[in-house]
Every structure is written in C-alpha cells, then in structure tokens.
Amino acid sequence: MFYGNWFRQCPMGSAAYIIRQGDTLYKIAQKFSTTVEAIISINPGINPMALYIGQQICVPQRLPQPLSCPIGTSPYQVKAGDTLYAIAKKFNTTVQAIISANPDIDPDKLYVGQQICVTEELPPVTTCPTLNTYVIQKGDILSVIARAFNVSIQNILAINPGLNPNNMPVGAVICLPVAPSPLSINVSIRAKTLGLYRSGSLVKSYPVATGKPTTPTPEGTFSIINKQVNPGGPFGTRWMGLSKPHYGIHGNNNPASIGTAASNGCVRMYNDDVNELFNLVPVNTIVRIF
Known about the structure:
single chain; 290 residues; 4 domains; 27% strand
C-alpha cells in the first residue's frame, strides 16, 4: 500500500511504500511492475535481506502504458468527477459508443488516471447540396469567387437562396457549384507536409501531422468528397472528407502535434492553414498521399 510522503520525501516518479509481512523486494517489484535494481537505486543503504514490517521505502511508480486506440477513437484520461455520460456529452458521442470501443470497461468503476478510448464523431452532414462550402472573407466579391471556382454567379445564387452579392457578411458560409479545378494536393507522410499544386506547379506547402504507427495514414490517390465548417473537437475549424471512408484533412485542437505522427490516420493541419486551404480547393480535388 502507498502512503504518499508521510515519513520521508521520495524522489520524483516514486512514492512511499510501507513493508508488510511476507514482503521481499522481488515481490514488491513484481507488484508494481518495476525491478529490484530500480528500488535499490532510490533507497540508498537499504538491505534487501533485512526488511522489517513498518519500514518505509520508495518504489518507482508504474507509468501508464500508452493506449493504442482503434481508428476513429482517441485516448482520454479519466478525471475527477468523470462519468461515461459526462465524457460522452463532452465529446459529442454516446455512452454506448464509448463502451463499444472499450469492451472491458466497467462504467460504474471508473478511476482517476484511467485511460479509455473515446469515439470521434465525424462532422455532421453539411446542408450544402453540393457538399462544396466556402467561408466569406473580408473583401470577397462574388464575381471573383465565381471565377476562382470556374462557376457562374447565377449558379451560385441559384443554390444560395437569399444571398445578397452586395452584402455578404464575413464568416458567412455559402454553397458553391462543383466544377473542374486545376488544383491538386500532395501529402508526404515522411516529410509531414501538404503541397497545394496548380496544374502541376507548387503553389504553397503546409506542415501537417499524419497517422501514428498503429493508425497510419493511408497511401494512395483519393479525392475530396465533402467540406464542413467548424466540425469541432479534434477536427478543429475545418473538415475536408476524403473518398477513403473515415479519413480527411482537418484542423486540430492540439497544435503541438503538427509535424509529428500523431493522428488516427487523418491529415491534421494548423487551423489557420486549413482555413486557407479550405477556401481554395473544391470538392473533387485530387489528393495524393505517399
């Protein structure tokens, strides 16, 4: 049993333990997933052959093993006051979905520090019939937007009833028709970069995060099939779904992960970068991942 720091200050990464009848360093090491050598190293002067009941020693604390969560879920560490219902509500999922991702979990016996997998709800289906959305920026003119996406003003107005070309509020989301585009995207898993190309020439390169070794980003040639504004949670401010089911290019809620292998397979960008890219590429844009 651990007794915190009642009698002496143990080194960081260890905690006090009181010797009980029958204890040996070997048994204690087995109990707490450490080694006899590690215990001896933080208890100078200890005599392994002369332990006595009530003696206080320091034992290295068992570090939680990194949790490998299935695709579509992310690790979560249970906090004080958490219930599955509260966690489900926080992540916009359901208790049943969390239980399905954690078959051995006991909903009535959660404990602080416990690691579980929480399902990542995909962004809700957009109301845009073409699934090709655009966010109005300061200075936008409808004729310029139409020209950039190779469509007509009339076609934009036809699928955006009530849109006033002379009064488009910044941040308003409009729907665009889908037309062929000279743009394409290349994602290098090794370099952790996303390149935007126009007719084969590089326009801009962005840093990204890709999949962990246990949940790798799929390689191949895909296309963007839908676009969603403010999906929230781990998807950040924008979502661009790929033709590979359950994968996409999106923002983030952990900027420090960019440039690393950290996602569950999706391509993760800084929110400012994904906002920019989102307004440049239409649905059907080709995405090559290698």
